[in-house]
Give the backbone structure.
Amino acid sequence: MTSVGPTPRRPGPPEGAPSVFAADEQDDVDVDLNGVVALATAVLQAEKVKGDCELAVTFVDEETIAHLNLEFLGEDKPTDVLAFPIDDEIVESGRSPDSGSTGPDRPDVEPGEVPILLGDVMVCPAVAARNAAEHGRSTDDEVAMLVVHGILHVLGMDHADPEEARAMFAKQDDLLARFHRSR
């Protein structure tokens, strides 16, 4: 397993910025973890996510994503991306044990508070590579799109109906155009 993230913090007040941690737990497709961390961080900042918060992006193999897809969505097959916002019933309507919503309207974090856990994005690069070939784009572009897509889900966006889908995909395309350089 390879992982990338910010260096550990020194004691003191939180920096008030999102932290993104990325881990590669698969061997099928090479993934640029530093690029993913930079992209995810830029997306969170563009979406005005504030305060000391954390997001995890994990790259997994087809067996793992298929298991998660079955367990959480009832679909018995591999998928390309799954998003797990931290919205447990134990945590009140947000991502922090003490407050708030998922995104830009969340209040500032006071110094000394624990980081807010936004959630997890799980991506399967092997499925992404197949999808990329079908869509006529690079695997890197497909992975970037899936990371942004997963982050938008973590932040509360969805594409269950046509209006939501238009809004989510327009935002996704805008964020990719701003923060991902096609390769």
